[in-house]
Amino acid sequence: MQKAYSRREFIGKTFLLGSVLLSAAIALSECESKKSSEKEEKKDLKADPCEDLSGLSKNDIEARTKFAYVKKSPLPDKICSNCKLYIPPRDGKECGECLLFKGPVYPSGYCTYWAPAG
Ligand code: SF4
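# iron/sulfur cluster complex -> structure
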């Protein structure tokens, strides 16, 4: 024999189902939002590979800070591309490197260890 649903059971089950669907929709929405922000980040790195520090360790990144490296030199005549320690871009890369620390370096960059080339 089938049991008839009471109004209270019907409302309770409907509310529970609605809550589950709403939670799933919110979770899915957040997941999509996270994916699109990750894509934006990757797009930014592709747009400017000199900002890509993804292959560096925490110590490598700290070294860049320790030398006070900046991507745009405050002194127009003292830039990485005319520094003795600068390694020009190679293998088709767009950024140079520095002998002092790891990671990409802007030709227009600068740090406190700048030394005239040549
Ligand atoms: Fe640039 Fe400083 Fe390295 Fe020279 S030592 S290439 S100024 S980061």
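# post-check
The radius of gyration is 27 Å.
The pocket of iron/sulfur cluster is lined by residues 69, 80, 83, 85-86, 98, 100, 105, 109-111, 113-114 (CB under 6 Å).
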